[in-house]
Each structure stands twice: as structure tokens, then as C-alpha cells.
Write a structure and sequence with these properties.
There is one protein chain. By secondary structure, the protein is α/β, with parallel strands linked by helices. It folds into two domains: 3-53 and 301-414, Aspartate Aminotransferase, domain 1; 60-298, Type I PLP-dependent aspartate aminotransferase-like (Major domain) (Aspartate Aminotransferase, domain 2, 3-Layer(aba) Sandwich). Helices cover 41% and strands 15% of the residues. The chain is built from 15 helices and 14 strands. The protein has helices at residues 18-21, 60-73, 89-101, 113-124, 139-146, 160-177, 198-203, 230-234, 262-269, 273-276, 283-298, 301-319, 340-353, 383-401, 404-414, and strands spanning 30-31, 37-40, 43-47, 106-110, 130-134, 151-155, 181-186, 211-215, 242-246, 256-260, 332-337, 356-357, 359-361, 370-375. The strands form three sheets. It has a seven-stranded mixed beta sheet, with helices on both faces. Strands 1-2-3-12 form a four-stranded mixed beta sheet, with helices on one face. β2 and β3 form a beta hairpin. α12 runs parallel beside α14 (383-401) and α13 packs across α15 (404-414). It is globular, with a radius of gyration of 23 Å.
Length: 415
């Protein structure tokens, strides 16, 4: 058959909704100044969907640093991959400061978070090694493991008893093969807001020989003292073997980094194909990241404001009777009961009648009968934003309970 004959968007899990969803529910265009209020389809909306946790994305100081670096260096410099002609003292400076910030000895700068995680995993393991990972692992972790031709075992999310069983299985295999065990977890799970149980995982090191890789994309800049990471939040920074962070969330930029012992970072520098064969991160991204990191490190008001908004929002939702799951972080899921059709109407209602834009998740991402509104509080939001949102959520919850969205859908079909 012709390869293209099967490449139809309607055949994919998410793409089956493309004809009806694109432009509004999928690939929406948010316009105007980046922040808590932006323009969608010509109207200003209160936005709860940006991972701009510390509000640095549109900060005047950050924008000036970005602009000045672009004017001085342009977007081309440095040309070439790091190993060949794309290496500068600024890349090294950023690596040194990142390592110190997350309490590791050494770090290596990466072009992208997703690509970086895939390549880190690919570089760390061979056919003799076994990967053990959490069932709610991010897609970048899953794709990294797809490159692994050895065994991998999954444990139910944060189930320490089952994790121990998987470590026992992995140990038997590696004892026979002469390989090692890599355990992969996340610091903050970006869909539910839960934490990876790093304390429980680290405790198992007393009984089993394995190394820990933590993807802390959402925890870097937000969790632990001064935002130094989820491993610092748990007080296990010395026991996390490899720390991975990205710039796409708290830093509101592009890029990522991996941090560990100097010998491990040196190994990765010479083995990560996604970096060896890719152009170096452009200078404005590097200089901009240095500015952002300095602000995170020296300006605690951003982190304090974030947690004021988070705590007020989550307390208000709980007091109003909403189920926000087991979140322990900024990410705030609001879990409701309803169909995919309900979710569609609810989304439209929120955006058009209440001017609130937030991410809404329905089947097949979550089980049938569940609607999840994923709220991302930031330091850009105000207490007035929080108060208004809770008021609106009470109203839409009542509409769901009274089947008003389902009735509206039926009336539309009749017409």
C-alpha cells in the first residue's frame, strides 16, 4: 500500500476530533501581551493555561535582556554544534550557575526539554540495562524509553510497594546480564499536580542498587527552598543521581539542562546525539536564561506571589466543594463529572460567556465520565482573578449537575 494511504488525521486518538476542534478547542490562537489576560478570538480572556509560573515571560527586565542580547548577538551566533563550533563561555557560565542552583556538581545545557529527555535516556542505558518507571511518566520519557532495546518495568503511580517488586524483577535480570537499573520519575506531575514520592524512592536505595533520574520540568523554579527543585523540597538532593530541568516553565524560555556528577555530565556531553549533531542554543536564549535564573535566585517575590495565588485558589476551590485531586503543587486540576459533549459545551461557555480560558481534558486522556479543568496559577494572576474564577466554577458546576450542557447539545441537534 502507499504509505500516505494510512496517514489520515482521523485515524489518530486525538486527531479524530481535528475537524471540529481545530482553531478553537485545539490549536487556539492566544494573542496580545503575554500574561494572565490575553485575547482569544477578538475578546480579552482570563487565561489559566500558561506554564509561566513566575510571571517572567513578559517581565520588562527579562524582555530587555532578551532584546539587548538579540541586538548584540543576533539569532545565528554561535553557529554549529557545541562540540564543533557552537561553544561559548556564556554556555559554560549558565551550566555552572544551573548546577549550583539545583545543588549538583556539574550541568550540561540542552536545546530543548522534550528532545533532551529522550536523548538523556538513550545515552544512559544499553541492552543489558533495565528501566523502571512510573505509570504516569510524561510523553518525553516514554519516547526516550522506546529507543531502549532492553527491558523496562512500570509501576503504578507512586505505588512504592509495587515499585519494590519491579526493582526485585530488575535486579534479577541485571544480576544475570551484568547491566544496571535506571529508575525514572518526575518531580511534579504536570497533569495532576502530584509529586513523585522521591523520599520513598530514595529509601529503596538502601536495599537495591539503582540510579535515579528525575524529570523536574514543573518543579524547577517552583518547588523547594528558593525554587531549587522537588529534590530540595524533599531534602534528598544528594540522593538524586541525575536531575533534569527545562526552561519552558518557570524560566519562560527555550532550553533545558541535565545535572549530575562531573564524570556523568562529561559522558553525556560526548554521547548525547541530539546535542552532538544539533546547532547550539542561540546566544539570546543563553543570555536570557542567565537573566531569568538570576531573578529566580535573587528575587523571592516572584515565588512568594505564585504561592499566594496557588494557596488562595486551592483553598477557595476546596471550600466550595470542588475535587482538586491530590495536588501538592501549583498545578490545580478541577475534576467534574460529564461527557465529552458536556466538556465541549462547558469550554465554550467558559470562554464566550465568562471570558475564562483554561485547558479542559476529557476522554480519552481521562476516563469516560470525567472532565478535568487544568488550572495553572502564576505570579501574574491577582486575587481578584481567583475570586472571579471560583464564582464562575460554581455556576458551571451547577449547570453540569442540572444537565444544562447536555440539554443544550440536544437542542442544537434538533435545530
Amino acid at each position: 500500500m502507499d504509505l500516505f494511504d494510512k496517514l489520515k488525521v482521523e485515524n489518530s486518538v486525538i486527531g479524530q476530533y481535528a475537524a471540529d476542534a481545530e482553531g478553537y478547542y485545539a490549536f487556539p490562537k492566544l494573542e496580545g501581551e503575554l500574561g494572565s489576560h490575553m485575547v482569544f478570538q477578538g475578546k480579552k480572556r482570563l487565561v489559566w493555561s500558561l506554564n509561566n509560573y513566575l510571571g517572567l515571560g513578559n517581565n520588562p527586565e527579562v524582555r530587555k535582556a532578551d532584546a539587548d542580547a538579540s541586538k548584540e548577538w543576533g539569532l545565528a551566533y554561535p553557529m554549529g554544534a557545541r562540540m564543533m563550533t557552537g561553544h561559548t563561555k556564556y554556555h559554560e557560565q549558565l551550566e555552572s550557575e544551573l548546577a549550583a542552583f539545583v545543588k549538583k556538581d556539574s550541568a550540561y545545557l540542552l536545546n530543548y526539554g522534550y528532545q533532551g529527555m529522550v536523548s538523556v535516556i538513550d545515552s544512559l542505558v544499553d541492552r543489558k540495562d533495565v528501566i523502571v518507571y512510573d505509570s504516569e511518566a510524561h510523553a518525553c520519557i516514554i519516547d526516550g524509553m522506546r529507543l531502549h532495546i532492553g527491558k523496562r518495568f512500570v509501576y503504578p503511580h507512586n505505588d512504592m510497594a509495587n515499585l519494590e517488586k519491579q526493582l526485585q524483577r530488575a535486579t534479577k535480570l541485571t544480576d544475570a546480564s551484568g547491566g544496571g537499573i535506571l529508575l525514572i520519575t518526575e518531580g511534579v506531575y504536570g497533569m495532576t499536580g502530584g509529586l513523585g514520592h522521591l523520599d520513598g524512592i530514595v529509601a529503596l536505595k538502601k536495599k537495591y542498587n539503582f540510579r535515579i533520574l528525575i524529570d523536574d520540568a514543573h518543579g524547577f523554579g517552583t518547588m523547594g527552598k528558593e525554587g531549587r527543585g522537588t529534590h530540595v523540597h524533599y531534602g534528598v538532593e544528594d540522593d538524586i543521581d541525575i536531575y533534569f530541568g527545562t526552561f519552558a516553565k518557570s524560566m519562560a524560555g527555550i532550553g533545558a539542562f541535565v545535572a549530575s556528577k562531573p564524570e556523568i555530565i562529561t559522558y553525556l556531553k560526548y554521547n548525547m546525539r541530539s546535542q552532538i549533531y544539533a546547532k547550539s542554543l542561540p546566544m539570546p536564549m543563553v543570555v536570557g536564561a542567565l537573566k531569568r535564573l538570576d531573578m529566580i535566585r535573587t528575587r523571592p517575590e516572584f515565588l512568594n506571589k505564585l504561592w499566594t495565588i496557588v494557596n488562595t485558589l486551592q483553598k477557595g476551590l476546596r471550600d466550595a466543594g470542588f475535587n482538586i485531586g491530590q495536588t501538592e503543587t501549583m498545578v490545580t486540576p478541577v475534576i467534574l463529572s460529564g461527557t465529552v459533549a458536556d466538556a465541549t459545551q462547558l469550554t465554550y461557555d467558559l470562554r464566550e460567556n465568562y471570558n475564562i480560558f483554561c485547558s479542559i481534558v476529557a476522554y480519552p486522556v481521562v476516563p469516560k465520565g470525567i472532565i478535568m479543568l487544568r488550572i495553572i496559577p502564576t505570579a501574574d494572576h491577582s486575587l481578584e482573578d481567583v475570586e472571579y474564577t471560583i464564582k464562575v466554577f460554581k455556576e458551571i458546576k451547577n449547570k453540569l449537575i442540572n444537565n444544562l450542557y447536555s440539554k443544550k447539545m440536544k437542542s442544537m441537534v434538533v435545530k
